[in-house]
User: Which sequence fits this backbone?
């Protein structure tokens, strides 16, 4: 079409010879797209059989396998048939969405079907957020207005990440107070529709009742495998999670309701901690270790017991069911789901009963000092210092209200003077 237009303009000029007949141009013929969705129990081959002969199907599947395994396609996967021509129509291409980031494009060539993988472009950006808490951290980060450009669902992911980072220092549900202050920098990769693909906190500061807490991400090989340290390079991780129930399940109904207490304080009565949660809520191993008991156990009902390093054991009771594949003797990592909340054994309603023992002695897991993770290794110290400086600068882009700075300074001074007094 562009060529035709140029030819017409040329012939309109007197001093240019007639170019003669312009060759016919073939624009892409109109295409009809027919959408299919892979239903449960159906196969990709089954959908293809309606449109292609046996030989053609085999050729297409061969090309498809160069990009992905057809058996790994999940129900709901979108398959677009691209038809051209009049009667009969001809199938010229098939697009298969593997997931929200990848599509296999199949095109019919002279020598059978060919495939290519189209990746949805993503870009990486950094989110900065800071604020003084009026009601709850949830209300401030998720419902607050300063993250307008971040989809609502992703804002709650930010908060869950903050909880994962700070879980050992502070309970974001129970200990946050009005007047507390936070600022964090969050790196994420984003799809064209604005939704987040992956992301993690780069650096964060939380000031709770004038006491500051810091977490700075450090992955020495830039490969996403790393952990969080405080400003002195001490690990913020502990050998045990504070809670066997993830924050997102503890807050499912009402994070903003101050009356909501995820932990029923009944420690003294029965040497364990009860977590209110609905039946079926996943229960995670609070520390790495080995399963030593798994089964019905009297008033405990369905119970899992895990043996950890340094004489620690943990117990998880009243489970409705166990996670599959976890037999006695198997190793579990911190955070692995080991079972689901229930009401088996001697209980009046569904909840998780959690115990921690050290050398056989019951301890209150919510109040004991948990063993710390390793600090930044000595041979990575130089790299750490450089990363720390970069990531603290990210925080400092966000101003701190002067009264908070003053409160922290006053506290630091009083700590210094009390230490001085002891010496
Ligand atoms: Zn209990």
Assistant:
């Amino acid at each position: 079409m562009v060529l035709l237009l140029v030819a017409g303009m040329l012939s309109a000029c007197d001093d240019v010879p007639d170019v003669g007949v312009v060759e016919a141009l073939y624009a892409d013929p109109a295409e009809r797209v027919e959408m299919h969705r892979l239903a449960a129990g159906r196969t990709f081959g089954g959908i293809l059989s309606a449109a292609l002969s046996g030989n053609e199907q085999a050729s297409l599947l061969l090309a498809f396998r160069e990009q992905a395994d057809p058996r790994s396609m999940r129900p709901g996967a979108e398959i677009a048939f691209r038809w051209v021509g009049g009667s009969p129509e001809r199938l010229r291409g098939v697009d298969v969405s593997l997931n929200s980031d990848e599509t296999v494009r199949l095109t019919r060539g002279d020598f059978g079907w060919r495939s290519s993988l189209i990746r949805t472009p993503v870009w990486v950006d950094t989110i900065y957020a800071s604020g003084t808490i009026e009601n709850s951290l949830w209300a401030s980060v998720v419902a607050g207005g300063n993250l307008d450009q971040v989809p609502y669902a992703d804002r709650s992911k930010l908060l869950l990440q903050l909880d994962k980072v700070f879980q050992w220092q502070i309970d974001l549900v129970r200990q946050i107070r009005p007047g507390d202050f936070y600022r964090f920098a969050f790196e994420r990769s984003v799809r064209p529709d604005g939704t987040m693909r992956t992301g993690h906190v780069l650096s964060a500061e939380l000031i709770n009742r004038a006491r500051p807490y810091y977490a700075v991400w450090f992955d020495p090989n830039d490969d996403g495998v790393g952990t969080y340290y405080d400003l002195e390079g001490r690990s913020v991780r502990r050998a045990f999670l504070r809670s066997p129930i993830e924050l997102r399940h503890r807050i499912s109904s009402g994070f903003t309701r101050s009356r909501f207490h995820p932990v029923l304080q009944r420690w003294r009565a029965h040497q364990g901690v009860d977590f209110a949660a609905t039946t079926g809520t996943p229960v995670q191993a609070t520390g790495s270790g080995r399963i030593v008991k798994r089964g019905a156990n009297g008033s405990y009902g369905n119970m899992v017991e895990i043996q950890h390093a340094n004489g620690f054991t943990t117990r998880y009771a009243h489970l409705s069911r166990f996670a599959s594949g976890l037999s006695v003797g198997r190793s579990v990592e911190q955070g692995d789901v080991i079972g689901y909340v229930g009401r088996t054994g001697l209980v009046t309603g569904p909840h998780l009963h959690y115990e921690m023992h050290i050398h056989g002695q019951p301890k209150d897991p919510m109040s004991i000092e948990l063993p710390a993770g390793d600090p930044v290794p000595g041979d990575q110290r130089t790299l750490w210092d450089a990363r720390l400086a970069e990531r603290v600068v990210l925080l400092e882009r966000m101003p701190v209200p002067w009264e908070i700075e003053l409160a922290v300074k006053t506290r630091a001074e009083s700590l210094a003077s009390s230490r001085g007094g002891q010496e």
Residues 349 and 413 are 49 Å apart (CA to CA). Residues 247-363 form a domain with the Glucose Permease (Domain IIA) fold (CATH 2.70.70.10). The radius of gyration is 30 Å. The chain has three domains: 30-119, 123-229, 247-363.
